[in-house]
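__Record contents__

***
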Amino acid sequence: MSGIKVWDGRAYPLGSTADEWGVNFALFSQGALKVELCLFDKAGVKETHRFEMAARENNIWHIYLEGVKPGQVYGYRVYGPYEPQKGKRFNPNKLLIDPYARRLVGRLIWHKAIFGYDIDSPLQDLSFSVLDSAPYVPKSVVTDESLFDWEGDVPPQVDASKTIFYELHVKGFTKLHPKVQDAKRGTFMGLATNSVCGYLKWLGVTSVELLPVNAYMPERHISGKSNFWGYETINFFALEPSYTLHGDSDNTGFKNMVKQFHKNGLEVILDMVYNHTLEGNHLGPTLCYRGIDNESYYTLDGNNKRYYYDSTGCGASFNLQNPYVLRLVMDSMRYMVEEMHVDGFRLDLATSLARVKQEFSQSSGFMMAVRQDDVLGLVKMVAEPWDVGIGGYQLGAFYPGSMEWNDRYRDVVRRFWRGDERQVGELASRVSGSSDIFGTAKRSMWTSVNYVTVHDGMTLNDLVSYNHKHNVANGEDNRDGSDANWSFNSGFEGITKDKAILDNRKYRLRAMMATLMLSFGTPIIRAGDEFLNTQFGNNNAYCQDNVISYLVWEAINSEEINSIRFVKKLIKLREKMGVFSYRNFFNGAFIDKKNGIKDLAWYTEAGVEFSQSDWYQHNRRCLSYVVNAKDRLYMVILNANVNNIKWKLPSFKKSYKWSLMLDSSGLFEGEYGPSSTIWVPAWSVLCFEIKI
């Protein structure tokens, strides 16, 4: 490339910014002594130019290259001391990704050159590698995304109180989809097809939560395991290249997917992993942040800076206490909203993002920054409110306006429908919105994100088919994955043709899905649960880039179709009832004292409200609630007994008209009305409408 003119450029914005004359490059590094910008050919193979970034302002190195255009491939080499015991890990032999790169080219090859140290040395990371990593690492690309035509795209802005999340994996959802073209399977454009968007819209979900889509390089690690889920991010702006079509430039595939989702009234929620990166612990590779400024980007061990403080279980916590790192995270989220038009975020291990001096703080820089941000205040923010550090479990502690995954809901629903004793009190609290967790902070009822299954754990079908995890395929002798699955195989481990066992599984599976849809809070459905998808008992399929993790659409038969229709019916019922869009928690107050109607009341099978002693009956496996819906009431009965149970319906001071809206088992028979005695089928959920 000839004719490049070099200027000092500007410190902001960070990253590479193109204009009509050239490109400005800006990189934060507090500890660096020298920074070089390396330009490569379009394929990212041959280095063509190298420039020293001589200008430095407030720890930001910058340069402007007149004559360089969008599409230019580049990387950085950062010079400084290599003193791991002091937390300094500079190594100019390692080509580094721009933290603000909007696109990457090339794949990551797990070669020993990508490590900052000599992996063959007995000194491990205290040694120094002189191997050039450039041939083995992805490179950054200058982008110009201003030309994309959004065609007047309007975000659906689904009200939080009416949201139904649907969690899916980009590749796993479409890799085996028969109505997606082969070339588009496993990509953003595969999700953008009419068959996929139409199915999700028909099903009735409102907000599609994508497992991580930022660049994470799924190729097999030096350990031999692939990175399928994507929870090892290397860049928070660039998208995972394997999810884009060959030749796709400037993120058009992702944008087309978002645009198509929006046209179908569907929101796009991104699962963002800001708590750690692909670089891992002190023995991990040097690909980006570690080589740019290890002390700034990661939280180091206060007693020995060679090692990292790790509240994530993944090697090293990202250091959001550093203002430049916090800015990177905030800029990333704003970019995804403003440029990519996404509708919200699910924050992985969110407690790690809000730690101050290793302790969780509601006054952390991250919490304060997100709450005051005008852009992020308009989108959904969902926290996974825990990490593995001390004091890491923080369910209920995030800021008003955010949502939180509620694992206490997950556990009690699983245990109740497994038939465990002493669950009804906890279940009632979770089904009614978890006011004991979120109500004291004056938060809304939709704050609780209720789930029975998500990517991490067994599928819904496996919960009723396996007593134990079956993770041998992961290569860790079945040691990985949780042992607390609260599952029950119905009498046989795994696949069977026994009709009685299959029937029991169907009843309990449908009862759990019905409970989810008839609970107050915000439900999330794991993709494939609606059609009985299985992972064959694997509850930790993070490294299974194969049929264990793919949704097998062609295996759907009449039983699976019936299950899909059942879930669709539940979603429609939830919408029709209207009560689940309430924002304020219930308090058991009378709405109509004359006729004995409360906002929410719990009833036993005797047709009377629960007494204090009823809640403590250790062998109780059934309960019901009646909720007020202004001009009508709804009664939901949950029976986890192994047998049908005689149930007296409550009587009110007026005689109302009763209608059966749902029987999850399909076995209910009999007459019903005020004071009627009915038989509630085993393992079933019933819902009655009571017109006032």
